[in-house]
Amino acid sequence: MNERTPGTVLLRGGTVYSPADPFATAMVVEGGTVAWIGSEGAADAFADGVDEVVQLDGALVTPAFTDAHVHATATGLALTGLDLSAARDRADALARITAYAADHPGDRILLGHGWDAARWPDPRPPARAELDAATGGRPLYASRADVHSALATSALRDLVPGLADRAGHDADGPLTRDAHHAVRRTALASLGDGQRRAAQRAALRQAAAMGIGSLHECAGPDISGEDDFTGLLRLAAEEPGPRVVGYWAEAAGPDAPEVLEKVRDLGAVGAAGDLFVDGALGSHTACLRRPYADAGHTGTAYLTADRIADHVTACTDAGIQAGFHAIGDAAVDAVLTGVRQAADRLGIARVRAARHRVEHAEMLDEDAVAAFADLGLTASVQPAFDAAWGGDDGMYATRLGADRARGLNPYAALLRAGVPLALGSDSPVTPLDPWGTVRAAAFHRTAAHRISVRAAFTAHTRGGWRAVGRDGGGVLVPGAPADYAVWRTGDLVVQIPDDRVANWSTDPRSGTPGLPDLTPGLPLPRCLRTVVGGRTVH
């Protein structure tokens, strides 16, 4: 038996998180499938007939996580390249850029990520002249933490014809909208195949080390490019690692047959993911009903409700999943209006059955939550956004005011309404950190939006599989895919972080399996092994 030819494995002497047996301590995996789950005593019957026995020594076995929103190449570049996320202020960011440029004299274009001027004492980002000096006049692309704006030097801007005429152009400051997309395409086109493949490999390796067994890659013509997307899918198929499910974000309108044929040819499961209806709050490009508290405008709208309706109609007719990036309340309104129009054309049952999805879905009021449930939309959400930018003194409150900010990311209301949740990171916007993501959902900065650890864990494991139409994965029961992770952790608890969260019994006789105590301040579980389809990938 080796990584590529999984045999029969008995894991015993730990805790197996499974609805099949809440007291399970052992599991048998045969090939790529879970074959049996049960007690330590019953495991003796299997011990002599398996290829390998894994002594868990008290470790916890869970389904592997699914990260439902990732940009793999950008994640790998952030892991291996210029990381500006820890920059304390503008001077520190410029010093980091200078040092990186000196250490990488052979790079055609310097690539960085993660700066967030909203966290700095003086929130002015570096100006173009400052960047030119820091890089010695070399091309630099450095995306903001939310990846909806970027710093670019003169040398990089000069490589983009007509940049000054594009929407979102700023002669001295960060670029947004079409100007940002054009500069990003040029920067990423500079990557050689080897550099791109190394970045993708680094991202997949990091995901596996975090107990992630599946990634949803959210690609598109404004994000990464066709070669990048197909290269990632090919790499995932050729080398042991997390599964990669690909989404291609290109709108299907009058040219719907050609677009949907391209989606299929690229190997994508849907014309979805980051199909932008708006931008992001941090970059003032999320589309709002009312103006920003710190800017005199309402952000940016990229797609109308009619375009959304045409896209959903074409995808539903073709049996392809549709989906959109929508953060602001006006963007969410456009999505819901468009999907409702498609349901009026095709029948609501067909639209519901397609399991279309919305990425981020941050600004939802009570009516929007109800519409999500009625239309059968999946909410692909990122709890780490709230951990990073929520609270009365966070970036959300700066952009929206504290009252509006408290309404963001209403996970409890979505679950109460029956809206399917799939959790992710939007890496590199926030790191690949599944237990941290579960913690962020359970200890939301707005107490009314908190969900139980168990509900968040389910949304980060089974929810990701359901979001791509595979209801049998993300759970450890006989017959399920053998995608699991082994963890060293502290005591297991049945955790209820807030009285407003739906309760369940903590009595062991209730048969409710425990999960790690994720109370803030306690260490998170450490991944010992990650297995995908019966093959050890970490």
From TrEMBL:
SUPFAM superfamilies: Composite domain of metallo-dependent hydrolases, Metallo-dependent hydrolases. InterPro entries: Amidohydro_3, Metal-dep_hydrolase_composite, Metal_Hydrolase. Residues 52-538 form the Amidohydrolase domain. GO terms for molecular function: hydrolase activity, acting on carbon-nitrogen (but not peptide) bonds. It comes from the Bacteria. This is Epsilon-lysine acylase. It comes from Streptantibioticus cattleyicolor (strain ATCC 35852 / DSM 46488 / JCM 4925 / NBRC 14057 / NRRL 8057). The lineage of its organism: Bacteria, Bacillati, Actinomycetota, Actinomycetes, Kitasatosporales.
